[in-house]
Amino acid sequence: MTALNKKLRLYYRMQHAAFVILLLLLVTSLGYLATQARWQWDVSQNARNSLSEASVEILQKLQGPVQVTAYATEQHAQFGDIRKIIADFITLYQHVKPDLSLTFIDPTEQPKLTQEAGVHMNGEMVVSFNERQEHLTVINEQAFSNILMRLVRAEDKRIVALGGHGERKLDGNANYDLGEFGKQLRKNGFVSQSLNLAIEQEVPVSANVLIIASPQVDLLPGEVDKLLDYIDRGGNLLWLVDQESLRGLLPVAEKLRLTLTPGVVVDPQAEQLKAPHTFALGTSYGQHVITDDFDYITVFPFARQILIDENAEWSSVALVEAAQQGWVETGDLDGEITYDQAMDVAGPISIAAALTRNIQDREQRIVVVGSGHFLANAYLGNGSNLDFGINLINWLTGDEELIVIQPRATLDNSLIFSESGLTLIVVGFLVVLPALFLVSGFAIWWRRRRKI
Known about the structure:
The protein is 34% helix and 21% strand. It contains 11 helices and 18 strands. A 9-stranded mixed sheet has the order 6-5-7-8-18-17-14-11-12, with helices on one face. Helix 1 (3-36) runs antiparallel to helix 11 (419-451).
């Protein structure tokens, strides 16, 4: 055997040894990472097996541990192993917030504890945070994240809605009313009540925000004076204005230094989306906390223009601009509608404004929207109207840190593997693949050795 062959054989042995060592290191590293870290890829429709960005943001705002107590038997007559269903669901939240704990109590074995907790259903959960509690009887992300949203609020926020003049009601069921929006507000931890200024002396001091939602008859001068006094005291206000008369509220517009021009916004772009041209599409938003990272379409039926009169008293932002290729139609809406340069106002059109000023060592916040329809039961589901409406209320009540897109509802079912299927996957990745690497490495070494 020549010296050259000896050197080649030594070289190949060192190469083979290095290959084996590196392969063993790779297998060992993969095994270690498998025990220390977890990756998952959600391929389900609507990403149902992972949390939405809204839910993640809510969890990040919960400073402190969250306790979930599930009152569930080992087996449920309808759902089978309900404890596993609950545990798998809570695990999604624990990945983001490790100090969210889950405890099971069997209501048949601990009836006294179950009764004291006020639990009435098998599988009901009690969620506790900062000495506050909420009950959950359904298992889905939207419901659970809404509970967390309520718990994260330091205190109940009170919404007062003006009534007595045919306004849209926060608890009403008619298409015109705001009942569905009111339900979402309650889910998010707000408390609402109606206010009749013909009876009450003033807007309650406890009100975090007053809503004036499209009165249908004129307010009495004394009622308007009470509203002006509320604004002078620094009260927060959401004013929904439709294309009809201001119903005696012109002094309020003047105090806010706003001009509400007559006419209805016409948006030709809406027709391209098979919507009426009297539906103004909100696609351009001003620089404001309410609209930060808000890149969604909102729909404002029969909107009117809101002009901001610049002044030193109020800081104002045009929240929504619509109808970039549209106009404000001042004529009859029946029949064919065309732009009249002499009479109509060309777009883009501002249809919502946010105002602030410092008064009594605090920031007063007011929002005026030129469409009460956009939060009505008939139109709330269009675009991201609900998200925009909740953002408005969060900002007006001083909870701008809770401005998030509302958690989504679940659309599809989970992909569940059987025990044998999971075993095959584990064996394939941890045994078969490493064995193939070893066999291929040995085959290469053997072929090279025979050539020497």
